[in-house]
Amino acid sequence: MNALKDAIKSGRTVVGTTVTPDIDVSVPAAAGYDFLLFDTQHSAWEIKQLRPSIETMRGKQAAPVVRVAANQPHLICFALDAGARGLIVPMVNTRAEAEAAVRACHYFPAGNRSNAGVRGEWGEFKSYREYMDAVNNELVIFPMIETNEALENLDAIASVPGVDALLVGPSDLSIELGVPLDYKCDHYQRALDKIAAAAAKHGVVAAMYFIPPGMEPNFYVDKGFKLITMPWAPWATAGIQNGLAGIKR
């Protein structure tokens, strides 16, 4: 029902990319990525306008993942009703905040998500209850680790039932650590090691919101981060250039 969750559970490296409102998202959705990330916190996506773009992804390999602007039930509900199969919640600092995010994602009795009929691409069901249970079980939930407070509460956050990954917000975390955007320094790297260890301890995935410029993705994979986003534009440009190079001109 959710290939993204299956991929995460398999232990392989899961790779996605971010998409913006000015592109045809059906193209990267079929290009081989595991997920496409719709960022309603720092990009031009309006959360109530996601549904048409997410619907163009039906039947494609990539799963739609939405980052909401804040840990608020109504924003989470909008994203899920639009068809998100993964939900990213920024600035989760405590167990209570992680629990609140999970409750907002899940239908009763596991949570308090409001019902609005079958939403998203989840398969065929014999009953509405069967649909709700499937969504509760298959949805992927990513609390973001971005602060010193979150670092102090890693075990508590990672142990919340329903949490699937600890997703590092690289920029905010580096700023909180007093080394703004210095992603290579030992202080920052030690924090990443702590996150990866906590994720492994609790059987969830360590994830990176993006790979910092100039750094190799496999550096983070070897460190234990098995879910990452990569920019699609350079790869698309290289593919176009390769195609053009093969034509006699």
The number of domains: 1
User: Count of DSSP helices?
Assistant: 12
Number of strands: 8
CATH class type: Alpha Beta
Helix coverage percent of residues? Answer: 40-55%
**What spatial form do the alpha-carbon principal axes imply?**
globular
And the CATH topology? TIM Barrel
Cα-atom radius of gyration: 18 Å
Strand adjacency order, main sheet: 1-2-3-4-5-6-7-8
SSE ordering: HEHEHEHEHHEHHEHHEHEH
CATH superfamily: Phosphoenolpyruvate-binding domains
The mean pLDDT is 96
* Proportion of strand residues: 15-25%
What structural class results from the helix and strand content? Answer: alpha/beta
Q: Distance between termini?
A: 47 Å
As residue ranges, the low-confidence spans are none
What does this 3D model show about the protein?
The protein has one domain (3-240): TIM Barrel. Helix content is 41%, strand content 16%. The protein has 12 helices and 8 strands. Strands 1-2-3-4-5-6-7-8 form an 8-stranded parallel β-barrel, surrounded by 5 helices. α4 (73-81) packs parallel to α5. The longest helix has 17 residues, at 186-202. The mean pLDDT is 96.
